[in-house]
Every structure is written in C-alpha cells, then in structure tokens.
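User: Before I run my own analysis I want an independent prediction to cross-check against. Here's the chain; please return only the structure tokens and, at the end, one sentence I can use as a sanity check.
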Amino acid sequence: MTSTQPARRASHRVLLSACAALGVAAGLVVGATPAPAATGIDLCAEVGYNAGFRGDALVTAIAVGMAESSCNPLASNVQNNTPPSTDRGLWEINDYWHPEVTDACAYDAQCNADETFRISNGGTNWQPWSTYNAGAHLRYLDAARAAADRHGHHEPGPAPLVYPAQSGKVVSARSADGRLEVFAAGADGVSHAWQTAVSGAWSDWEPLGGPGGAELAIGPNPDGRLEMFAINGTTFQHRYQLQPSGTWSDWETFGGGGHSIAAGSNQDGRLEVFASGPAGIFHKYQTAPNSGWSDWEPAGGGPADSRISLGKAPDGRLEVFALNTTTFQHQWQTAVNGAWSTWETFGGGGHDLTVDHNQDGRLEVLASGPAGVFHKYQTNPTTWSDWEPAGGPADSQLTSERSPDGRVEVFAINGSTAQHTWQTGVNAPYGPWDTFGGAGTETVATANADGRIEVFGTSSAGVHHKWQTGFSTWSDWTWLNTTAGPAVP
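Assistant: Structure tokens:
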C-alpha cells in the first residue's frame, strides 16, 4: 500500500445517517398507533414493549429512541446524511438504508417500533444506531427505566450483546464517547493513536513501550473503560483506561509469554481473556464486572501455538475458535456466563481466521490457507454448515466487520495483495473478491460511531487506514495523521 497525506478529511467526518441499517423484510402492514395520550418517552415505552422489547433491551430501546428523535413519531432529518436521505420517525429509520420500510410505516409509531425490533435483532444488536455507538443514549437511561416502570414493563429480558473485537498486531475499538482508538505493535513496543473527534480526524502516534512484536487484544469494561492486552514469547502485560474515554494506566503484568490472545465480554460484563502457547490454551476472567482477575486456568487443551478468535452466540454465550497449521478446534460456554465445553474439531489447519455474526445473530467463521479463504456458518444456534470455498488471497491475514446495513465484509492481506469481499445481501452469500490495495502484513477492521467501516493495514512502512465514504465507496489508503506509525513487519 502507498503512503499519502490525508486529503479527504472532511468527507471522513460526514455521518452516514442517524440510523444506518438495512433490513430484509418487505411489505409490512402498518400497525396501529397507540392512543394519543402516550407521548414522548411514554410512547417509546409503550410501542417498544408491544414490538417485543423486554427488560434491559426495552430500556435501551427507549433511551435510543430519545437520543434519535426525542421519541417524536413525526421526526425527520436530512442533515449530514451521505448519500442524501431522510431519517424517519421514533427510531429515525433511514430511507436509503431501509428502502423496504415505507414512509407510512416509518412515521407510524408502532410500525417503526416493530421494524426497530427486527433491525436490532430483538434488542441484542444496537450497532446500526450511531447514537448508541456514540453513547448519546446513556443520559436517557434513568428516564427510560422510569418510563418502563410506569407502564409496568421493566421485567427481566435480554441485555444488548457486546461482541468481541478482532485481535492481532493492530487492534481498534471505540471509547465510550464514540471515538476510535487504535494500537499497533512494533518491534520496540506498542504505539497508540486516537480520533480527536467522533468519526473524525486522528492524533499523532504515541509510543507506549510494552512488549515488542506483540499480539494485541482489546475489550470494553461494562463501565465503558477499554482494556488492552499485549503478549509476546516472554511477556504478557495489560493497561486500561482510568475512566471512560480517558487516560490510560501504565503497563501491568498479566501473565507469562505466549503466542496469541483474544478478549471478549461475558453477558454479565466480565471480560474474559484467552491465550495460546506450546501447552495449549489458557484463560483468565474478571471475578466481577470492572473488577480484578482470576488466576490463569487451563482451557482443557486446544491447539498449541494457535491463532485465537472469539465470537458471541445469539444468546450471549462466548465461543472460542483456535487454528494452527495442522488443527482447527472450537469450544463454547455451555450456559451464559458459565462453564466451557470440551474442545471439538472444527476443520483442518490453516494460516489465520476471523469470526463475525450475521444480521440474524448466527456466527460466521472464515479461515485462510494455501488454497485461499474458506468459510463456515451456523445453520442454527448449535449446528454448522460444511466448509465452503470463498476464493481470495492465499495464506492471508483476515479481518471482518459488519457494514452499516448488517452485511459482513471480509478483508484479506498477504505479501502481494489486499482484497475484500462482502455479503451480497443481509444473511446472504458472498460476492467475488475485489482489489483493496497492495501488499501488507496485518489488517483489522472496525466501525466508526456513524457505522462506517474503517480498515487499518500494516507493513514495514507503518500503519495506514482506509474508510467508507459511502455505502460502497472507499477513501484511498492514508496515514492516520502526519506520520505512518510503527513498522509492523
């Protein structure tokens, strides 16, 4: 990939929409709007409950509705929408990303709530809403709980799922205020950069020290503080934000050395970290949310010196996938926040893997090897398809992220090329691969607060990034700010 100075920063700040998601159903009959007495936040509470939201998911839905439209069923917004489009109704359903939702439905309170329930996968995935990603809904949570209680609807129900971030030599995640933070591991340690505004420009790179040539992982504590982990052959350390979106602690010892790591959130908010080494896979977990850690425990085996990736099943159980050159295995929690199964064969060996989820919650796993990229997906919560060839670069480093409309996009890079492919529709098969750049060593994809995918690529020249400028258009590769960042050979 080539190094050029950023030239499109203004377009980088443009929001896609207040609600960037694309559904699959069509032809819905407009529902009946509740009695006029229900207005504002009480209207969101009533129609949200009627749509199917329960418990914490209902509270979150009400808060997102307040952040989006102040729970005004006739709300309409066209500002800062790229492509030009209109956000409509209680949960600001966008007419470009939702062509199947008519204006009649979008401006009908109950129909808008029904569509929001569908798009959010029953209240378990709020990623398509930029106000949720930016944390703008948080200030409404107390009022949302009160509204749910007033209507007698604050009963137990599912909390939104927090999906694990990709791990590797470069990782990125959003702070609680919506700004992306990125970490890259060079030979001399870890470097750090961050967005200076939500979905906006970037800081210069800051050297942090820590393990050289490390594998990295990052995860959010339930109080909003990010925690970052770094491992190399002799050292395992971590550091964490001292307050949400704030400064970071110094490095602290987290264990001995190893090969690869992955981090994810249990459904109760406790972070869990997996690490591989010559003796297999071990794990360590928070004993309470935002709290201290258990001792390291063996995970019952697993492939030695493997690449690890985590996924989250539709019911909130974590699943672990581990791949080395000869073996591919996985294990899963047998209950939400619970114990783990034995390891089970998942396929043959390979080079790298990435795990993501379909719009309907089913997990999708992709793995690379000398014959290209293959994928395997859940056919229901407990069974899997066979491996299917997907083409793509041989022995490539993989990453994936969900487009604002809910389709999985996959990015692959090796020593000669960078390519990407994407689902041709929500929960659908993949299309052909498209050129995405030149050679590199590692890549990671993440989502901005406005839903646009941002991809980071590493090489011996440094770290560059590329971002969506529209539904299917991308910027050129550029530095983050004035320098290329650490070399990641």
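Sanity check: The two ends are 13 Å apart (CA to CA).
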